[in-house]
Amino acid sequence: MQVCAVILAAGEGKRMKSKHAKVVHQAAGLPLISWVKAALDGANAEDQVYIVGHRQEEVRAVLGESVAFVLQEQQLGTGHAVQQASHFLEGRRGATLIMCGDTPLVTAASLRSVLDTFEKDHYAAIVVTAHAPDPTGYGRILRDERGHVQAIVEHRDATPEQREICEVNAGMYCFDTALLLSALGRIGCRNSQQEFYLTDTIEILRQDGHKIGASSLPFEEVLGVNDRRQLQESMAILNRRILEKHMIDGVTIVDPATTWIEQGVTIGTDTTILPNCSIKGSTEIGSDAVIGPDTHLVDMKVADGVRLDHVTAVESEIGARAYIGPYSHIRPGSKIGPNCRLGNFVEIKNSTLGADCYLIHQCYIGDTDVGHNVNIGSSASTANYDGVNKSRSAIGSHAFIGSNSCLVSPVSVDENAYVAAGSTITEGVNEYALAIARAHQINKEDWVKTRGLNRNQRLNP
Ligand code: UD1
Ligand code: CA
Questions:
Q1: Which tens digit of pLDDT belongs to each residue from 387-417?
Q2: In the chain, which residues fall in CATH 2.160.10.10?
Q3: Which one of 15, 64, 279, 399 is at 20 to 30 Å from 363 when CA atoms are compared?
Q4: Nearest ligand, CA of residue 32?
Q5: CATH classification of 3-222 is 3.90.550.10, yes or no?
Q6: Contact (Cβ atoms closer than 8 angstroms) between residue 205 and residue 124
């Protein structure tokens, strides 16, 4: 069966109080509309047309070239919105799914089951419904005494008895494409909002003698995002689904309430995620790793057996069994080799470190290529920025950089060289050499006594 989809995304979304289109707001790593698209892709809706209006450039930018767009210049109602897709649908057969762009929680499996029912039982249309804990604001499903769907009545147009109905229209439908087109041409706007209601097509088709069905989904799947509270609610639900999937796949997540993992992150088995972590973008984590607590990763590649404790790391790679933290910042463009030990308050930027390097205490390495088995002492740093330009430095394998030394880039310290503590290195250091670049120490004997500055009988003020 050919499956098309029309997605309504022209509305302004006033209640978001945002300068952006509602459907481009993100939840769990994807814009709302991309969640809808993913569900439709998963249900094999091969031809998708998105009805855009408000901030259409943002919606187009998010969805890209693989789908069609139609501009709805004035938002005259959901029926009017779908009418804009008429040209797109004409001549097509099979089914058309209609969705709103702000319902990120519907799953591909649910859409597939709606399509299956539609095809098997030859319906003209299926309305997706849900039982709402509070149906206020939703369209209500009207059924006859035999339980057949008769019509949908909007909350504003409903009688007090109709408002008692808790079965609501989810705003998702599956139509026979040709019948949808025939009904769309006949909807009017005689209702309290003077809008063209898509929901009126249901009654029109029933009056034509066609069979209308209803598929009920859990309310959670049909939740729409209209304001920031519902946005948060959908983020939490999507996050919980993602965490559950990882747990089922063999990842230990100690505290789901404080763990936020975006769609698209992969994690190997026997990895443990400790509390207060966010793992985002295209991050890949291997097996047997321990991540957290308080660790934030964006677009990272983290190999097997890595331990990250209070680390923020972005767009970088960390090799197997490296142990980083507590309190380190790995900035974009870095590559940390296997078995490295980076300790307290270490910052690495746009640098490569070979295997087995030790930087245990606070230090800064920027724009530097470090070999393997290098030891860098506490408070050592690279001066990679002269105020105008950045320069790169290199530290060869097995080198030892003493505490509180400063490498003024560009400079290179060759393999097996030593830099003495407190040195400011401005010239290259050859293999096996020791560089000492600090003022000679002068000790003045009995200076304290001769100056009368003896402190051993005085307390601090
Ligand atoms: C609609 C349904 C209601 C259902 C509810 C579920 C109608 C008449 N009512 O009501 O039965 O319970 O959804 O959430 O269909 N849009 C456009 N262009 C327009 C109008 C709307 O693109 O001209 C888009 C909006 O951006 C939104 C969606 O369509 O994403 C739904 O429109 P909205 O006006 O919010 O309909 P509801 O009143 O929620
Ligand atoms: Ca709505």
A1: 999 999 999 999 999 999 999 999 999 999 9
A2: 228-435
A3: 279
A4: 1
A5: yes
A6: yes
